[in-house]
């Protein structure tokens, strides 16, 4: 069985994005497209951390609730969250009520704000993450060929941990790199392959 499915519109998509309308829209319009703003990268990093151990479909369905609960993922606003906010978030059934991940998101917001003043980092969180773009992108022909980490995601994980970030393992960061266009893991033959404009 092929890992690509031709839809009613004649376009080829991977199995995971072919049937569910929410996943299909995300795949067709957003996944793998460049995100270069601090707020955009912080949101994706936060959602990838919340996704750990869960399905991306679950996170995507709760995305607007996450945005409302976390002040639109504006780093300064989240960095200012205190104990009352943690209590509020742990009680919010619309999001993933994992205390460790909630605390990590707040901690990561503070680390993101601190990066703005780091003389060794050009462009804050977004600039740092994009600086780990590899020289080549994978070109998988099947889902089995899609990597789950890379030397760059491993190096970025080490760097972010040193800077105080949490829930930033190599697998989580490779998923982030896929989501924001740093690598293109659209299957060869997918109608989205190369759509980011980053890789020919």
From TrEMBL:
Pfam families assigned: Adenine_glyco
Protein name in UniProt: DNA-3-methyladenine glycosylase I
InterPro entries: Adenine_glyco, DNA-3mA_glycosylase, DNA_glycosylase
Organism expressing this protein natively: Actinomyces denticolens
């Amino acid at each position: 069985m092929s890992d690509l499915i031709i839809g009613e519109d004649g376009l080829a998509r991977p199995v995971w994005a072919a049937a569910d309308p929410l996943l299909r829209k995300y795949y067709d319009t957003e996944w793998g497209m460049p995100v270069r703003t601090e707020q955009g990268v912080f949101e994706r990093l936060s959602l990838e951390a919340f996704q750990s151990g869960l399905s991306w479909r679950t996170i995507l369905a709760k995305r607007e609730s996450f945005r409302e609960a976390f002040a639109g993922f504006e780093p300064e606003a989240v960095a200012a969250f205190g104990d009352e906010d943690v209590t509020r978030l742990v009680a919010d059934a619309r999001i993933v009520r994992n205390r460790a991940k909630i605390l990590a998101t707040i901690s990561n917001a503070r680390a993101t704000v601190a990066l703005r003043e780091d003389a060794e980092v050009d462009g804050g969180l977004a600039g740092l993450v994009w600086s780990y773009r590899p020289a080549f992108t994978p070109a998988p022909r099947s889902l089995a060929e899609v990597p789950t980490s890379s030397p760059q995601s491993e190096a970025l994980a080490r760097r972010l941990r040193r800077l105080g970030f949490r829930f930033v393992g190599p697998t989580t960061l490779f998923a982030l790199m896929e989501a924001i266009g740093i690598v293109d893991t659209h299957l060869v033959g997918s109608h989205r392959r190369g759509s980011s404009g980053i890789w020919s």
